[in-house]
Design goal:
2 copies of one chain form a homodimer.
Chain A lengths: L2 H11 L5 H14 L1 H4 L78 E6 L5 E4 H4 L5 E8 L16 H5 L2 E10 H7 L10 E6 L7 E4 H4 L4 E6 L2 E2 L9 E3 L12 E7 L14 E2 L5 E2 L8 E6 L11 E10 L5 E7 L7 E2 L1 E2 L10 E9 L4 E9 L8 H8 L12 E4 L5 E4 L3
Parallel strand pairs in A: 1-10
Antiparallel strand pairs in A: 1-2, 3-4, 4-7, 5-6, 5-10, 7-8, 7-9, 11-12, 13-14, 14-18, 15-16, 15-19, 17-18, 19-20, 20-21
Chain lengths: 421, 421
């Protein structure tokens, strides 16, 4: 075996400036490091028994990996938006405990026993389902991302929030178990031969958050869901039942789902007129901008996840998603979009409208970087630059900003949110 | 639209004895049910803000969906086994918070800063990795099940534990992020041209729980993992780093992974001789029984998840898995294995050595059932009956019981653990 060969990468790990010394340092640790040579307290006795946490929480050392809000972002009497700590996560699944929240009148407590779901409207017999009724219908499992339409909204006006959690953290990705909405519409007698071309969906909270969904989507992949990542939905995600509208903006994923009305036209509710429409440069608005276009972000390194080592091997990672289907490719740039390298995609076993993890296993030379990622989806769509997006959409909107994000990485490994022209 | 058509299933939902009345009851609720007709307290004001739970827990109404132990099962000074509440879960992902624990000297607290992983032995240069070092190697994401070899072990002697959580709950299924072990072995210079044919792996806890793994497996799909379901491993699952040995018994998935030694032969440690070998009827033992064979269990209905409604539509669900690869088919019997119906499989997007959810959407006629499920995997292997397994393996073992499980469902919907001859 060649010593040169076997030491090559290890040497680089210790820093490009002193390869040989680095190698020795790594090997010497075993001799001089008390964490290796001495019996530690944790190897000397009994640790904690299984009674300690019937339902467990993260270890105390991970106490910073939590949802966080930005107080000035919402003027509500109680804070109504927080953000997933995406800078500290890896893989694709978002644990419910740190999956972002967005409430329009707070998170309510609703017992399964008190839960009712009404279906009424055009061409259907009015029906009311209890939670126990819902458990008797055939159900499915799917992994989908849920992204707030306002995710990255502050970036329209410039680089204001210094962290991937805050610029891109209004997203989560879970395995949902639920009943296809078409099953319940069929149960109520909907047969397609009526004037019912939309459904209006609302929640049991004070805001009700009513939204109109075209019947074509309602009959396609919308789920009436009651489990996420295997267990019951959390209170803050709509316990006991929420709507899952794959690939479409999170505001339509009605929590504490109370009613589904078949209508002949869109209701034009508050949540789809004064809110969740996109105001353009000339003051007019785009509406029915439901689909979340392809988007990606580098989560590490990023302002909250700086590089903590010297030059040498560096894993650049992030996530990509598209409301139109599968992510087919992600490119990464270290120079603000001048040159690009194609990243390696993680698990891609067929989930559509779900987060895709990407990795660029690279060598960092220790110099500054302008890190970007650029997603492509199965429709051929390519994630736009911020300049391209502003040219079409102006600066007046807070919704549907899917532009390429830039992190400026300094020579000391720290990073900040910047714009490149 | 035909009223007969549109009411057919709804009618059945209300019970086969009074279809028309049942339909009316479902429809009348909208008129007479204050939960529908009156504005409820939770729709009248503000719910909880997002500051309430930076890291969330399940809602209080789900307080029974927790890990539970069986005090008489372990004689340790602290309880060392608990069980995943599989009867209450759906889909495939197991949340870390309720994923079973098995400790040999308790769960220890080990900071990332104090973490060291040594690789040494035949044909490698001794190396020590810090946690920060590990973060610089290319990593992968995979969903795998982890099952304790003793799962279902009490069933060898008969139907002793009345609940799927206790008979089959020493299993969980998570999305792991980690580095292929082969990457780290290569880093240490292992090139295959040595007498190193095994690795001996051990943890940082007092038990150290050392196990021998053939090099062929070590170079195949074993991961040195640091994330599960997107976030850091929990303390009780080996924070900050554990071994993931896909499809093989959980005891080999070393937690708090401390050392990997390349050896010429198996170490024949305590954990692979006096424990984790299978004692046969004649007193001799099978050893190196690493792979978890194909297995399944109905999780609902089951003793802890009784049927709470009358005759009519019933969803029978459960999970199946195989250490040899993919589940290709699951059959369900209602009559103790005399007749079988093929179940519908949930997500099957390519994950191998992972849990597969199955559903049988059926009609319950209200009579007693002897519910069973039978899994088949891509090798053609069929899950055996308890009698078949006992014939080959006797009654002396506690390990590797993958027999078909039977639940006796009574006319009132309650269920209990039974054996059928």
């Amino acid at each position: 075996m060649s010593d040169d060969l076997k030491l090559s990468r290890r040497a680089v790990l210790a820093g490009s400036a002193a390869a040989a010394a680095g190698t020795l340092a790594t090997q010497a640790r075993a001799e001089g490091d008390p964490l290796i040579t001495e019996v530690q307290e944790w190897a000397s006795g009994l640790g904690e028994g299984v009674d300690a946490t019937p339902y467990g929480l993260p270890i105390e050392f991970e106490a910073d990996v939590v949802r966080r809000n930005v107080p000035w972002l919402t003027a509500d009497p109680i804070s109504s938006i927080n953000f997933t700590p995406i800078h500290a996560l890896d893989g694709t699944i978002t644990p419910q405990g740190c999956a972002f929240e967005r409430h329009h009148s707070g998170a309510i407590e609703l017992r399964k026993e008190d839960y009712r779901l009404m279906i009424n409207g055009l061409g259907v017999s009015p029906l009311v389902f209890t939670y126990a009724d819902l458990e008797r219908f055939p159900r499915e499992n799917h992994v989908y991302f849920c992204e707030c339409a306002a995710n990255t909204g502050m970036e329209w006006a410039g680089a204001q929030l210094n962290g991937a959690q805050f610029t891109h953290g209004m997203i989560h990705n879970m395995e949902y178990t639920g009943i296809p909405l078409r099953t319940l519409l069929n149960e109520a007698g909907y047969d397609g031969a009526t004037e019912g071309r939309w459904v209006y969906v609302e929640g049991a909270d004070a805001s009700s958050n009513g939204r109109s969904i075209p019947m074509e989507k309602a009959l396609d992949d919308v789920l009436v869901a009651f489990k996420a990542n295997g267990e019951a939905l959390r209170k803050e995600h709509g316990y006991p039942v929420r709507l899952v509208v794959p690939g479409w903006e999170g505001n339509m994923w009605i929590k504490w789902l109370r009613r589904i009305e078949v209508t002949d036209a869109a209701v034009e509710s508050r949540e789809e007129t004064s809110k969740y429409t996109d105001t353009l440069a000339d003051g007019t608005s785009r509406k029915w901008t439901w689909v979340m276009d392809a988007k990606s972000v580098v989560t590490s390194p990023s302002p909250q996840a700086p590089i903590t080592h010297g030059p040498g091997p560096l894993v650049i990672t992030g996530m990509a998603w598209s409301g139109h289907g599968r992510i087919t490719r992600v490119d990464v740039s270290k120079d603000g979009g001048i040159t690009w390298e194609t990243a390696r995609l993680g698990r891609t076993q067929g989930d559509t409208k779900a987060l895709t993890r990407f990795y660029l296993d690279t060598e960092w030379d220790g110099s500054e970087m302008l890190l970007q990622s650029r997603a492509m989806d199965e429709t051929g769509y390519v994630q736009p630059t911020k300049a391209q997006l502003r040219e079409v959409r102006g600066l007046n909107s807070v919704y549907h900003n899917n532009c390429i994000q830039t992190w400026h990485v300094n020579t000391d490994g720290s990073a900040e949110n910047v714009e490149v022209s």
